[in-house]
Write a structure and sequence with these properties.
Elements (H helix, E strand, L loop, with lengths): L9 E4 L26 H13 L4 E5 L7 H13 L3 E7 L7 H13 L4 E5 L2 H4 L4 H13 L3 E5 L4 H7 L7 H8 L3 H8 L6 H7 L6 E2 H4 L15 E4 L3 E3 L8 E2 L2 H4 L7 H22 L6 E2 L2 H15 L11 H4 L2
Parallel strand pairs: 1-2, 1-7, 2-3, 3-4, 4-5
Antiparallel strand pairs: 6-10, 7-8, 8-9
The structure holds iron/sulfur cluster.
The site of iron/sulfur cluster has 10 residues, from α12 and α13.
Length: 325
């Protein structure tokens, strides 16, 4: 039985729906998801559990957490009641309408002890959000003593060069900066090649025979990470970087059993070979000849179980991750 001891640092996914459908989104967020937010009751339970596990600060992410702030405030209040600090809220600035409304929102966020917004600045978001909204939000943050964590400043010049009045597809960036701009983004952004990012970029990557990938029998050490985990609105603990895998947060301390969490257990103890053996013997999974690596094979097996044969496994969640990819 696997248990987690101390949890160091993580994030809260308040909602998966988003105004954007970014091609690099590990969590596969989009406008297609249900408009669910984490409830105040769930937030209360999660923050209590995090405090007991030694985690005293979190960031808030999504989806886009500021799409419907009235659902976010009760979550912030719950964090305050449990003495959990909010390091920052991630936002894409799509909701910006005017200075007056934005100023009022920032004042309310500050009253809830939010002092920093992480604001997305990159060509992926610029496919959906005109840059003028990002610039306006940053300016208003300055006026309201809200710190800005710009993610990432190195793309500022690129977005500025494309023009800030409207959105721009990545193919426009290719034409403007050179045909391999999207490929260069892969390196410049240091993308986590999982979730939708992997689906976007797998065509650019070298592939390997499945037999070679399955010769790796080492446990997936990403699953034991306690420095950048997330807990989502449904109570799913999402391991560092591996969206679409889940353990209910209560089972982190009570125990992750192979009976309830066969996929997670197989990956944690025997890596991709363990997962492949489980899925092929139990559910008849048949791989393609080649994959870009173990993470693509891992995703393909989980997608097969969630979508093709419609299993509702506790550790292959949320199903929306696969449905709205
Ligand atoms: S193989 Fe699966 S569990 Fe392991 S790092 Fe890749 S996506 Fe995560």
């Amino acid at each position: 039985m696997i248990t987690y001891g101390r949890l160091v640092s993580g994030g809260i996914i308040t909602n998966y729906d988003c105004s954007s459908q970014c091609r690099h989104c590990v969590y596969a967020s989009s406008p297609h998801w249900p408009k669910d937010y984490m409830t105040a009751g769930m937030a209360d339970e999660i923050f209590r559990a995090l405090k007991v596990s030694g985690c005293h600060a979190v960031h808030i992410g999504g989806g886009e957490p500021l799409l419907r702030p009235q659902h976010l405030f009760p979550i912030l209040k719950a964090a305050e009641e449990h003495g959990i600090q909010i390091d920052y809220i991630e936002t894409n600035a799509s909701w910006y309408k005017n200075a007056e409304r934005t100023g009022a929102l920032l004042r309310e966020l500050r009253q809830h002890h939010v002092h920093t917004l992480l604001i997305s600045i990159d060509p992926f978001h610029n496919e959906f959000i005109p840059f003028y909204k990002v610039k306006a939000l940053i300016e208003i943050c300055k006026q309201h003593d809200m710190s800005v964590f710009p993610w990432r400043m190195e793309f500022w010049g690129d977005l500025e060069a494309m023009g800030d009045a409207k959105t721009h597809r990545l193919e426009e960036y290719d034409r403007f900066f050179g045909y391999d701009y999207q490929l260069q983004l892969l390196k410049r952004y240091h993308l986590n090649l999982r979730g939708r990012a992997l689906q976007t970029y797998k065509g650019y990557l070298k592939t390997f025979p499945v037999r070679e990938i399955l010769s790796d029998t080492s446990p997936c050490n990403k699953l034991s990470g306690v420095h950048h985990f997330h807990i989502d609105l449904y109570g799913n603990f999402v391991p560092e970087s591996c969206a679409g895998l889940a353990v209910h947060y209560k089972d982190l301390t009570q125990g992750i059993t192979p009976e309830k969490y066969p996929v997670f257990h197989a990956l944690y103890t025997a890596g991709i070979k363990g997962l492949y053996d489980f899925a092929s013997h139990r559910y008849g999974f048949e791989p393609k000849d080649n994959y870009t690596g173990k993470c693509e094979l891992c995703y393909d097996i989980r997608r097969y179980m969630a979508m093709d044969i419609k299993l509702n496994l506790a550790d292959v969640q949320p199903l929306g991750h696969y449905k709205y990819m």
